[in-house]
Design goal:
- The protein is an alpha/beta fold.
- 30% of the residues lie in helices and 30% in strands.
- The chain contains five helices and nine strands; from the N terminus they run E-H-E-H-E-E-E-H-E-E-E-E-H-H.
- Helix 1 packs across helix 2.
- The structure holds inosinic acid and magnesium ion.
- Magnesium ion binds next to loops.
């Protein structure tokens, strides 16, 4: 497995993003809303760099990719959704790919009448976007590769990796055997 972004680079960039947020909000109170599960690490690390009064909340969104005749549909699971009325909200996700998830959640949150709403993503994949959405904060732009780690999963596994690695064809083969995948992860770490 190829290392794309090391843990150190991620941490450094998150410090910079927290600085960008501080420039925009000063000491104004904000609310970070993370989309589960992918935003977990990003939320936890960004949060620790912020100095203003900050609340957090999470929501879960599942998308059912439609066929060409049926447009895809995004369902926001109720129950978790925090009260954001009148708050300055920054919506966080791990990656901006087609932008379907974030566009759906942005529409949903607008309906909750926050004082303001911005979007932050750790990664933005080049050449994949289907809907127009410009994040206010972007960690890294990456090529069109399937990546794992730092919240991003392969079949719901490997979100725990502290770095971003590339899940290429050879690595996907290895993922069928946990031992081989563990070796691939160690190799990626050793090579940097
Ligand atoms: P979008 O709705 O197409 O923008 O997709 C966003 C969601 O797709 C993210 O929250 C991820 O869960 C998932 N996703 C997109 N690209 C990748 C990837 O390279 N690795 C893992 N998950 C991904
Ligand atoms: Mg996912």
């Amino acid at each position: 497995m190829q290392m794309l972004i090391t843990a150190e680079k991620i941490q450094h960039r998150i410090e910079e993003m927290a600085h960008e947020i501080a420039l925009d909000y000063g000491s104004e109170p904000i609310t970070l809303i993370g989309i589960l599960n992918g935003s977990l690490m990003f939320m936890a690390d960004l949060l620790r760099e912020l100095k203003m009064p900050t609340r957090i909340g999470f929501l879960r969104a599942s998308s059912y990719r439609g066929t060409t005749t049926r447009p895809s549909h995004l369902e926001i699971l109720p129950g978790l959704v925090p009260d954001v009325r009148g708050r300055h909200v920054i919506l966080l996700d791990d990656i901006l790919d087609t932008a379907r998830t974030l566009t759906g959640v942005v529409d949903f949150l607008r309906g909750q009448e926050p004082a303001s709403l911005k979007v932050g993503v750790l990664l933005r994949k080049r050449g994949r976007q289907e809907l127009p959405l410009e994040p206010n904060y972007t960690g890294f732009e990456i090529p069109d590769l399937f990546v794992i780690g730092y919240g991003l999963d392969y079949n719901d596994d490997y979100r725990q990796l502290p770095f971003i690695g590339v899940m290429d064809e050879a690595t996907i083969q290895k993922a069928t055997t946990p031992e081989l995948m563990t070796e691939a992860i160690l190799e990626a770490v050793m090579e940097t």
